[in-house]
Structures are given as structure tokens and as C-alpha cells.
Amino acid sequence: MATLKDIGLAAAFNIGSAFAFFLAFAILKIQPFNDRVYFPKWYLKGLRSSPIHGRALVKKFVNLDLQSYIRFLNWMHDALKMPEPELIDHAGLDSAVYLRIYLMGLKIFVPIACLAWTILIPINWTNDTLSTVARIKNITASDIDNLSISNIPQGSQRFWAHIAMAYAFTFWTCYVLLKEYETVADMRFHFLLTERRRPDQFSVLVRNVPPDPDESVSELVEHFFLVNHPNNYLSSQVVYNANKLADLVEKKKKMQNWFDYYHLKFARNNTKRPFIKTGFWGLWGKKTDAIDYYISEIEKVSEEIAAERERVASDPKSIVPAAFVSFKTRWAAAVCAQTQQFRNPTLWLTDWAPEPQDVYWPNLAIPYVSLTLRRLIMGMAFFFLTFFFLIPITIVQSLASIEGLEKAFPFLSHLLKIQFVQAFIAGVLPGLVLKLFLMFLPSILMIMSKFEGFISISSLERRSASRYYLFNLVNTFLCNVIVGSALQQLKSFIHQPPTEIAKTFGMAIPMKATFFITFIMVDGWAGVAADILRIKPLVMFHLKNLFLVKTEKDRESAMDPGSIEFHAREPRIQLYFLLGLVYATVTPILLPFILVFFALGYVVFRHQVINVYSQEYESAAAFWPAVHGRVIMALVISQVLLMGLLTTKAAALSTPFLIALPILTIYFHRFCKGRYEPAFIRYPLEEAMMKDTLERAREPNLNVKSYLQNAFLHPVFRGDDDRDENEMEEIMKWENESDLVPTKRTSRRTTPAASKIGSSTPSSQHEGQMVP
Amino acid sequence: MATLKDIGLAAAFNIGSAFAFFLAFAILKIQPFNDRVYFPKWYLKGLRSSPIHGRALVKKFVNLDLQSYIRFLNWMHDALKMPEPELIDHAGLDSAVYLRIYLMGLKIFVPIACLAWTILIPINWTNDTLSTVARIKNITASDIDNLSISNIPQGSQRFWAHIAMAYAFTFWTCYVLLKEYETVADMRFHFLLTERRRPDQFSVLVRNVPPDPDESVSELVEHFFLVNHPNNYLSSQVVYNANKLADLVEKKKKMQNWFDYYHLKFARNNTKRPFIKTGFWGLWGKKTDAIDYYISEIEKVSEEIAAERERVASDPKSIVPAAFVSFKTRWAAAVCAQTQQFRNPTLWLTDWAPEPQDVYWPNLAIPYVSLTLRRLIMGMAFFFLTFFFLIPITIVQSLASIEGLEKAFPFLSHLLKIQFVQAFIAGVLPGLVLKLFLMFLPSILMIMSKFEGFISISSLERRSASRYYLFNLVNTFLCNVIVGSALQQLKSFIHQPPTEIAKTFGMAIPMKATFFITFIMVDGWAGVAADILRIKPLVMFHLKNLFLVKTEKDRESAMDPGSIEFHAREPRIQLYFLLGLVYATVTPILLPFILVFFALGYVVFRHQVINVYSQEYESAAAFWPAVHGRVIMALVISQVLLMGLLTTKAAALSTPFLIALPILTIYFHRFCKGRYEPAFIRYPLEEAMMKDTLERAREPNLNVKSYLQNAFLHPVFRGDDDRDENEMEEIMKWENESDLVPTKRTSRRTTPAASKIGSSTPSSQHEGQMVP
Q1: Residue A653: is its pLDDT beyond 90?
Q2: What is the pLDDT of residues A732-762, one digit of tens each?
Q3: Which of A227, A228, A343, A694 should one mutate to test binding to chain B, selecting the residue with the greatest count of B CBs within 10 A?
């Protein structure tokens, strides 16, 4: 068991590394050539221009202003300065509410920590159970354990304090949760009421349009809604299966990149035209002139794209049985989205249309029966992934051992005899395999969610997040409390009575406090601090800048602002809620470490949200019910574990008082679900009507139909066309003249603004590019 | 263990008693003076008139046609003769679909029984495990056990046959369930489309109207819906808290009955005016002339009613924050019922309006917060009722012992010394107490559901049914499989691992087969046969006929047609599904007994539905999803128990093959839920629009507003008024002249027709009786 001194050492080390990260960040950030890596959001918004222009050559790349080095923690202050309404305006509601999760952590745990330190720690401290035991058994008790519940003798009356505290903590947590739910729901309503006109406010997505031998999908949809929503129906937009087309466009883009690369290479060194081999991966095959080759390839693909575009537009088979249906008013859209249209509830399914940017196009055509089957398969797959993931890992690890490698790749045997290589394989590889798997886990879960058939990116992320949380709960929390694989845990769940399980876990909880304290410091302190450095985007940007960037526009697309990545980050925050709630009554000394995590995370991610991340979509905080639900789950787990622990402590009389807690907590959850969850799923008619009325008063002559015309066109049919043509022209031009003319046009294809303001005038922008 | 001979004896006895009931029924039924007891539905429909008029005096009361005694089982044929569409027309969809539950039992179990008898019984029979064991241990194995799975040796390969059969039975059951769900959903849509115009088709019930200092509830409702459903809103009807008024009306009715009684007594014996004592229960107090007393009392109550009616109509406090809102079209009502109106989802709650007859008025004013709290309390109360009900029963039983009674009522000690009384108390009373409790259980559960705040009688019955099923599952099924109280079962559930529980129950299952066979015969055969006798209504009718009936109209209200009583009967049918599915693979010999139950039940209740029961309301088979869900639950239980049983049989290799079954079954349930349940909860807009369009074409000049005017008035404000006045006049008339003039007017207050046709013209009928 670690002593306070050990913990202090670890803390010093982790604080040190966190500071090192911050220092590195501060230095890298103020170098002008990194400006686009650390402030991409401002570029995307068009509010910041490159500091490189119009400076001395050295100053273009290195910051020589020494003062700015001294104020290296100033960014924290800047990040906290922006008020919340401005933040919502700047980064969207999703980001602002995401930050509130950290804030909620502080709100919950600051009072709990104060209470626990003033009441529970003295109560635990003023016993001598452990020191007596230690004296008898001649071992030294750790200081941490002296401060935990373990120090209280069996059957002591002091446990009443812990029970009272469990009640107090539960009530306080529920109170904060309730207030937060209320606030977020209000913020959402306010956001929806004040946000600009968006096409999805007027539209629903109808899926599973039944096949009809006599009518096309578009006619069918039009007739159905003209009959069933006679005064409200406005227009409809069928969905094309343009996955192949999208692939081709993607391919062309890649070619374009290569062309840019060789083009730039040639431009810099005008003497030698670059050559490439056309075979596999450019490793063998005929040698040709790279620029000519890519020009011809791009032309070829462009022709293919044109042909495919023609085919998609004319072939009725490329129309999937789904459509975006738009209505004259938001009220009518709200009505259609919330009601059942057809007697068979699996046909003519209507849902709110996601934002155009949020649509996950490949999933729009999945039929209902297949949907439930896909959920079943993925449910089972997730079960196996959670409890059996160690099996393939172990196989890979055994393969990655020295003997395994020798067998698989005999030609490596010489290499494997080197001492250093042996040490690396034995010591590092197994851990690396596991680490790699865990790194890719969110992506794996994301692929699983995609297979399940969700139709918007936001819902994909929400589903992945909930799965990731469960995985973490089993494999990070439970497996570390009782050492053993998830499979062993599963066996004990099946073969042990529930009371026994609660006891085993409850007993193990206090012993694992030091482990989790170290975990919090490494993962929560240093990890969060490392996030701000953005090492991968930094490297990628400079590589791209070196090899691909030709124009300002290219430089813009070389920036990778990233996004919050809700599906990967939120479940990890939830782990800290779980740890905090479980240890609040058991080992309160853990709480300050959690507080530091929440505070640090809040500042760091507030900075990132303001300066870096660019959200792809705006779901108006639709994830909050899931966040709330997971905190409730953590609360119930903490109560059950405390019950188990107290049972083993022979506090039999007091334990029954704890049974009421989980019941009350679950009841509270159901109350919140009924009271607040509809705000995140449905759109009240009153709000819709209010917004319609306001709009009618403000813009009486608004033509909604033309506004909505091409809002829900597949992205490959949209505005990108003109860019393509522009580029082709450019290429042709280059063929003729050979000097670069950087265009002034700024592209906003993937800007965060697009997500909020975006398609406010798409009809004028994309006029004439609709599918014929 | 019982042998086949014992079972045969019991079967003979129960078949005998069933026949005795049928014989008694046949004899009683064809006596003219019982006609109203056994054919009340036809009287209520006005399709049958009393056979007493215009016959010889003897023939009026006793049937002397000997031929009709011979054809004493003819009613079965008559009951089966009526085709289903006619049955729906005659008795409503609820009754017709209720009968389909028995039919579904036959559809599921006839093929299962055939398969099990041809395959499983030979496989079980051709072993000699039990006879070997018996020879060694010198006991005789019962024949029943030789036919069951117990006869197969440990670890035999023959268990594969049982596993294959488990799969076959599951697939067949699911197939039948799917087909039935589909059929019932179609029947419901067809019924809704073709049924007559009903006020609830145009109306929604809005609850939790928020208080407003400036506007009355009625103004508030009108404004809110005029704003948010501008083109569709038609009218609204506030809800009065008329519970006190309803009590007064009830009191007046009672007085009226007593008046009728004494009035009739005096009319028969004109010499002596009847006297009563006005004190407690008529036991002491001043002696007065009974007729004069009741006349003055009735007048007094009438005045009170008038005053209360005035108060309710004028006092704004008697208006509860709820209202029935009617729309111009069914489409608009469907929209309003399925959408959220207000940003706070606990205010302005809209739901389909129940049928006017179906409304449970006292619950309309319960606020949302209180609703969730009530559910929590009742959930806990039900938990305690299920697992701890034996505790109060035991207390009452100990009180009902000889010592207990002697202590409580010392003055009875002489009586308690009589041998016969002692035997009665010791032998019969404890069982009687339990029996009484179980008899009143459905009523207790109904009161609990009422407390929970459901607003329609149909939903009250559905909730009670699901609770009754769970109670039966625990206390009839589980507690009989493993002898022990529910409390002991609960303890083992908590303290044993789940696999252990499945094993214990699985092992006990085959041993309990003979017990359940006897149970099926007593409860399922003789019990169902006894139902047709209608002993309680028979006695009550003749008593009322003797003492109260004055006119034809009174005779009509003396009939007690009863109803299906879904909440008490359906859960008991479900027990047979459970037994059938559990024993299908284990002891197939039980199946024919189940088949007899379903066949008998189908015939008996088809007769009752056609000739007797009068449904209070029509929910259009809204209970089917619950029926379906409970059969699925039985299926899963049967699979888990089989798994437990096979584990103990050392068929370890084969058991894992069974794990897929519950997973597939639950997946099937989820599929059905998604596919068919919405048909029972929502009303698709297409159907509503179709019905609206048809109606507009047929009756272009229909005035919906006047049609709906008073449809949702509290029953005490409705048509009964004219009856009251009529009666007062009658009483006054009697005061003057002394001979009876039976009125020809037939009242249809509680007719079944009212439920379907009912208020089709209430505006003309109740004109002028609305609240001032």
C-alpha cells in the first residue's frame, strides 16, 4: 500500500509533466508558423488572417517577443473570460453544454469534498483499528488507509456517519443534476427559438417508403403527403444512393492532392520533371511523367464522375425509398415528425430531419426489419467485445512474442536474436498491442454504430459514447477493483448471488484507492494537459504545408481543427464521476484529485473549444439525457457498493437504511426522464408556432420553397462542383502558364459556421447545380 | 406420486362435476322466470321481450316442454354458430378479441401436443431409469413420471430430442403469436374505420392546465388551442369536480330503492302502512311511517343535489385543471393527441380522450408530480403485497384460531366449546381467510390502480391485470413448484446465484406435474363450467325481483349482466399458457388437460359474451399487447427452466444450445413491439384522414360542434335528470291515486349498445340539461 509520501511523489511528477506540456504549448502556440494549428477556428470563421504576411522573414516563423513567453499561462485567463452566451454564439450549443459537464463535476464534488473532509476524515482518523492490526501483525498501515473507512472497527456506531453522508451526497448530487437538467433544457429551448432559420426546422425525413409499381418514389411521397397533410405540405427531396459517386469524388480528390504535390515539386525545382511508377503503390511498373499522368487520371475520373452522376440522376434504382419532406411551417414539420403516418408503423417512418451536415447518408436506405436485426447482432457483438476482448488480444500478444514471431516470419530470426529487440518484444509489445486496441476502441464502436443504421452523425456519436462507457465501466473500473479479466467477472456474476457480488466488490473498493489516485493523476492530469499540445495535428499540418499547400485555400484545408469527439471523451469524464461518487464515502482523500481533473479539463477544453475545435454538426445538446443517465448510474453503483462494504463491516443494523437510496435515486431518474427528456426528443407545438409567428411578422414575403430547394441534396451533388470545375480550369491554366496565382476565394465547406449559419442561402449559392 | 389411475379418478370426478354444472345450467336457463338472468344482453339490446307475458300461469315460470330438456347441450352449438364479424357487431371488439385468447391457446397447443405425444413420449417411455431406481430402492415409480423427462438417464444423448422440440415449440408459438398480433391489429383498424361516429374520435383530454390568475380554465384552454391549433380547434369542455354531487345522486338512488320497497309492500298489503325506525341501521330510534319518511328524505336530497349542482356550476374552484378539447376533424385530434404541446412536458398533457363511458372521472385532476409519486408508492406496495401478503394472512389466521377468538371475544367462549364449531374453526377458517383474500385480490389491485391515477376504466383494468398476473406467477406458480412462501423465494433470489435458482426450479418442475394436472382439472374444468351458472346474479335478481321491482324498467335495472372482467380473468388464462409451455418439453402428458381447458373456456365464454355480458366500454382490443407480452414472458420462463433442468441432468454439452432461445424470443418480442404495438397506442394520420374524407363525402352538412356539445359532461349532469323528475312526479302521483301504471319507456342508461352506438345523438337527447 502506498503511503502519503508515495502519492506526493507521484503527484509532483504528474504536476511536473502537466506543467511541461503547458510550457511546450505556450512556446509552440506563439510561434507564427504554428498559428493555424492552435487557432484554426478563427481562420475558419474568417476572423483571423495569417500572421506570416508582412513581417520580417525570421519573425514570420519564430516569435521573438520575450514578454509573450513570460505570460505563458495567460491562455487560461483568456479561455475563462468569454461569457457563456458569447461562447454559444461562437462555438455552438453542443460545445458550450459539453463544457458544462466539467462544470457540473465541480458543482457536485466541491461541496462533497468539503463535507467529507470536515466530517468523514476526522471520524476515520480517530480510530486505531489499522494500527492495532499492524502492531499485532507487524506490518505498517498506510496513511491513506488510516483516513479511509477501513480504519473503523467492525460493527462500530460510527458507520452511521457514513450512511448519513451517503444520503447527503446523494441528495446533493441529485439536486445539482436536476438544476443542470433544467438549465440545459432551457438553454436548448432558447437556442432553438433564437437560432437562425435552418432547413431542418421545416423538414422531416421519411424512410421506408413502400415500393409502388406505378409511381416513382418522388411521386409517391408527394401524393402521400399531399393527401395526409393537405394544407401543410410544401416539397420533397428524394435521396439518391450516391455512395459510388462519393467514392469517385473522393478518389479524384486524392489524385488532385498528388497532382498538387508533384506540381509544387516541379514549381520549386523547375529543371526536372518528376516521374513516378504507375504500378502497385508506386513501387514498380512503367515510369511516366507524374504531372501528365495525374492530369490524365484526373480527367478520366472526372469523366467517370460525370457518367455516374448522369446514371444516378436518371436510373430509378439509384433512388432509395427515403425522402426529405418539407412543410410550409415549423408547426407542420413538428406535427409530422411526432405522429405516425401509416397503419403499418414500419412504413412511412417520419423523424426529424437531421441538420444537412449531420446526415449520415449511407444509412438512409436500410429497411426496418434489417434495422432490428442489425441491433440484435451489434448488441451481441458488443457483449462479446466487452467480456471477451482479451482473447484476441492474448492471441495477438502470444503471436507478438519472440517464439511467435520466429515461427511466423522465419526470415526475421537473425534480427530477433539481438538483445535489444528481444527486450523490446518481451517488455513493450504486449502492452503496446493492448494500448493500440484501446486507442482504436472508439473507432471500432463507431463502426458498430454505423452498422446499426443510425442516420445522423450526432446519434452515431451518442450511441458509441454509451457503449464506450459500459466498456470502461466493466474493463477499467470493475476489472481493476477486483483484479481479473472481464470474463472472470462475468462468470462470478452468473455463479454468485447478487448480495455476494456486492460484498466482494464493496470489500475491495477501499484497497484500490491508491491505484485510482495514481490513475487519475496520469490519465486525468497529465493526459488532459497533453491534449492541449495537439501533437498529431501539429505534425500533419507542417507535413502538408511542406508538400501539398499551394494556395491559401489549400492551407486552410490542411488545418485539422478536429472536434470535441463526444463519443471518445465524454465516457472518460464519466469514469471520474463514478470514481468520485464511489470513493466520496469510502476514501474521501481521493476527492481533491478529482477536483483538479475537472478544473483542469474545464479550462483546457474551454480553450480548445474557443480556439481550435470546429463542430461538424449542431445537435442542440441532444446528448444531455445520456450524460444525466450515466451520472445516475454511477450514483446507484456507488450506493450498492457501499451497501456491500457495510455488510462486510458487520454494520448489519445500519445497512437496511441504505436500501432506500437506490430506490429513491432510480425514482428521481424516472421523474427527470418524464419532466425533462421530452425537451431533447420532441419539439413542442407551442414553440414551433411561436417561431413561425415571429418569422411571419418579421419576413412576411419569405419564400420558404425556394429557400429549401436544395438543402437536403447529397453533398456530392452540391456546391463542390464549381470548385471542381475551378480546379480543372486551374490545372489547364497551369499547363499553359507556369506561375502561381493564389485565389482570394475562401472556401467554407467544412466551417463550423456552416453548421450554424451554413445553408441559410443555399438556393442562391447552388443555383443550377441540382440533379437534373 | 400419483399414478395414471389416480389421475383418471380425479378426471372422472371433475368431468362429472362439470357435467353437473352444465345440466343445472340447462335446466335453469329454459325456465321463463330465469330468462333475464341468462339472456340479459338481448334484453338490454331491446331484441328480446319477457316470455312471461301472455302465457298460462304455470308456463310463465316453469318450462314444461320436455323436448327442450333433452337438447341440454345445444347452447354450445348455438354459441359457436355466430360468425366473428357478427359477434363483433353484437358484443364489441373487446369481447371478440378476448375470446381469441382461448382460440390462440388452442392454436398454440394442439400442434405442440401432437408433436410432443408422437415424439417426446416414446422417447421418454423407452427408458428404464426410473424403474431401475425403483427396483433398487424398492419403490414404485408412477406412470406419469415414466412418460416425463425424469425417465431419461443422466447425460443421455436423447436430450437432443428435447432441445430440438424446445426450438420447434418456440418457433411455433412465436409464429402463432405473430399471426394473431397481425390479425388483431387488422381487426382493430377495420373496427376503427367502420365504427360509427363517436365523440372521442374528435377529442383529446388535456390535463395539468397551468393555473392562471387572469383567466378561467375554460378561457385558458380555448386561447391556448386557438393559438396552437388555429385551423382545427372546435370547442372545449371543462371538467367539474363533481365527486360530491355523484355521491348525493348515489344516495338518492338508494333512498329511491327503499321507497320502492316499502311502496310495493304497502301496495300488496293495503291494510297496514309500513313503519321503520330512523336510527342506526334501522335498529332503534323513532318509529315513523316509512313511505312518508322516504318521500321527505328524497325531497331533501333532491334539494341538496340542486344546491350542489348550482355550486359546482358557479364555483370556479370546482373546475379541475383539465378539459376535453374537440377538433373539427379526426386528423386534428390525432395530431394533438400524439404531439407535445408545451415546452414543459408535464403541463398541457394531451392524450386521446377515452370513450365517455370509459372515463374514470375522479382521477382527472391529479397533477403530474403526484402521479409519479403515486406510481412509486404503488410499485412498492405491490412488491410488499406479492412477497409479504402471507404475513397479515397468518396474523388473521392465528386470530381466527380457537385461542385467538376466545381472547378477542370472551363472551363467545361457550359457543367455542361446541365440538362442531371447534372443528369448523380449526379446519375451515384458515383456508377460508386465504380464499377470501384471493377472491378480493382483483378488487384490491383495482383500488391500487385507481390510486395510481389512470383516467379510463379500460386502462385501470389493464394495469390490474398485469399486476394480478405477476402475483399469480410468484404465488401460484413459483411457490407451488418449490414449496415455500413468496418471501422464502425472494430470499433465495437474493442469496443464490441465478444459475443455482434456475437449477433448483428446473429440477422441481417434473415432480410437480401431477399437482398441476389436478389444479387444471379443478380450476380450469369445473371452475369454468361453474361460471356459466351465474349463481350470484341469479340469486340477486330473484331477490330484487321480489322486493324492489315495480315496473319493467326496474326489472331491467335489476338484471346484472356483468362483464368479461378482463382484470380478473385474463391473468388466470395466462397461467395455463405458462403451464403448457413449461411442461410441453418436460411432461407432455399435461398438454391434453390444457387443451380441454382452452376448448371449454372458449365455448363457455362465447356463450356468455353472446347472451350475458354487457361491456361497459369499448377499447378496441387495446389489451392485446399485454396479452402478447405475457405469453412471451411464459415462453422465456419455460426456456430458462428447461435450461436449469438440463444442467442438472448432466447434459452439459447440449445446454449451451438453449441459450440462444431466450435471446431470440426477446428479440422477437422487440420486433413485434416495434411492428404492431403502435397500432394499439397511436392513431395513424392516414387512417384519420381517410375516415374524415369518407364522412365529408357522406354527410357534407354535418354539424360536428352541436354533435359534440355535451358528449364529455360528467355523468351526473347528464340525461338522468329527466328520469329523476319523472320519478318524483310518479311518487307524487302515487300519493294521490293508488294503482300502478307501468311506464312503457325503456331506459338505456347502461346498455352495451351505449358503448358502441351510445351517444351518437346526445345533443338532441340531452338538450337543455347542460350545466348552466
Answers
A1: no
A2: 555 454 443 343 334 333 334 333 333 333 3
A3: A343
Helix, strand, or coil (residue A157): coil
Q: Which residues of B touch A663 (CB under 8 A)?
A: 380
- Note the ipTM here: 0.77
C-alpha cell recorded at residue A406: 520466429
Strand partners, B277: B287
Regarding beta strands A319-327 and A203-207, do their DSSP bridges make them parallel or antiparallel, or are they unpaired?
antiparallel
Cβ atoms of B503 and B647 closer than 8 Å: yes
Give CA–CA dist B482/B446, Å, rounded: 29
| Contact: A497, B499; criterion CB under 8 Å | no
Nearest to B515 by CA among B579, B596, B581: B579
Strands A287-289 and B203-207: unpaired
- From A345's Cα to the closest Cα of chain B, the distance in A is 6
Sheet bearing B349-352, strands edge to edge: B233-240, B319-327, B203-207, B349-352
From residue B594, alpha-carbon distances to B125, B520, B575, B578, B633 in Å are 21, 7, 10, 10, 18
* Nine cell digits for residue B225: 388551442
Question: What is the reported pTM?
Answer: 0.81
Is A372 close to B667, i.e. CB distance below 8 A?
Answer: yes
Please list, residue by residue across B133-153, b when 16 or more beta carbons sit within 10 angstroms of its beta carbon and e when fewer do.
ebeeeeeebbbbbbbbbbbbe
In 3D space, the residue among A281, A282, A290, A239 whose CA is nearest the CA of residue A263 turns out to be: A290
Residues in chain B with pLDDT values less than 50: 1, 720-725, 735, 737-772
Considering CB atoms only, which of B343, B368, B500 is closest to A679? B343
- A106/chain B closest Cα distance in angstroms: 28
- Which residues of A fall within a CB distance of 8 Å from B495? 497, 499-500
CA–CA min distance B500, chain A (Å): 7
Q: With CA atoms as reference, report the closest residue to B416 among B436, B393, B392, B400.
A: B400
Chain B closest-CA separation from residue A381 CA (Å): 13
**What is the Cα–Cα distance from B263 to A542, expressed in whole angstroms?**
107
Cα–Cα dist A561/A39, whole Å: 8
Distance between CA A282 and CA A292 in Å, rounded? 15
A325 strand-pairing partners: A204, A236
Taking residue B566's Cβ as centre, other Cβ atoms within 10 Å add up to 22
Q: What angle do CA A488, A489, A491 make, to 5 degrees?
A: 65
Q: How far apart are CA B665 and CA B676, in angstroms?
A: 16
Distance in Å, alpha carbon of B100 to nearest chain A alpha carbon: 22
Which runs of consecutive H residues, i.e. helices, occur in A345-400? 368-388, 390-399
Does the distance separating the beta carbons of B340 and A678 come in below 8 Å? yes
Considering only alpha carbons, which residue of chain A is nearest residue B498? A494
Host H or E run for residue B424: helix B419-427
Task: Give yes or no for a contact between A387 and A393, defined as CB atoms under 8 angstroms apart.
Answer: no
Predicted confidence band at A771 (pLDDT cuts at 50, 70, 90)?
Answer: very low
How far is the C-alpha of B473 from the C-alpha of B480, rounded, in Å? 10
* Element spanning A326, H or E: strand A319-327
Cβ neighbours of B345 in A, within 8 Å: 674-676, 678-679, 682, 684
Per-residue pLDDT at A105:
95
Q: Do A342 and B682 touch (CB under 8 A)?
A: no
Chain B CB contacts of A339 under 8 Å are: 334-335, 338-339, 682, 684-685
